[in-house]
Specification:
Layout: E1 27-35, E2 38-45, E3 50-55, E4 67-70, E5 79-84, E6 101-106, E7 117-121, E8 134-139, E9 148-153, E10 163-167, E11 180-183
Antiparallel strand pairs: 1-2, 2-3, 4-5, 5-6, 6-7, 8-9, 9-10, 10-11
């Protein structure tokens, strides 16, 4: 059974544990408003039993705007990739804002449906880059045995016309430096 992310876009999201036949084999994620634009991703089984919540950390970052799943470290368990396109690093001294951020949460092999370890991907180079507005699993595009992901930043790049960042998976999880950045030069 396939569950779906119902908001903000109709992105299909699949099973977290495809090899299991019980009701935990399917899930859906749904960002929920906690308080004043702080969002969390709520994961459910196919019979709508809550199996976990992942909460955003920054007010107004739109954590959970887009969500994807992929087994990035090839451990047989699906990991959750969560975009926060309006994230701002307030420690930057250049005055950049809404550069965006992506969080990757790894499913624990010991505690099924537990996401304790995570990585952070930053990529937006200009203000309002909105890195993480779109996230997608690509499969294993470099044929190294680990799934890879793409992250969209629709207003990034030197002319602010957009960029797509490619991140490769590895035995330790996603590599936090993009292996390739595709810059849009004209529309």
């Amino acid at each position: 059974m396939m569950a779906e992310l119902m908001w903000p876009s109709e992105c299909p999201v699949g099973p977290i544990s495809p090899e299991r036949s019980d009701s935990v084999s399917s899930f859906c994620v749904h960002p929920r408003l906690l308080t004043v634009l702080v969002l969390k991703v709520v994961m459910f089984t196919s019979n709508l039993t809550n199996i976990g919540n992942i909460t955003g950390q920054q007010l107004g970052a739109y954590f959970g705007y887009c969500v994807a799943i992929a087994d990035l470290n090839n451990d047989g368990l699906q990991d959750v990739i969560v975009g926060a396109p309006l994230y701002t690093n307030y420690a930057n001294t250049e005055g950049k804002y809404e550069t965006g951020r992506v969080h990757v949460f790894y499913q624990s092999a010991r505690l099924r449906n537990s996401f304790r370890r995570s990585d952070v991907l930053d990529g937006g180079e200009v203000s309002k880059a909105r890195f993480g507005l779109a996230v997608s699993s690509l499969g294993d595009i470099n044929l190294d045995g680990f799934n890879d992901i793409a992250v969209g930043a629709p207003y990034d790049g030197p002319s602010e016309k957009g960029a797509v960042y490619i991140f490769h998976g590895s035995s330790k999880g996603v590599r936090t430096k993009a292996s390739q950045v595709l810059i849009i030069k004209c529309l």
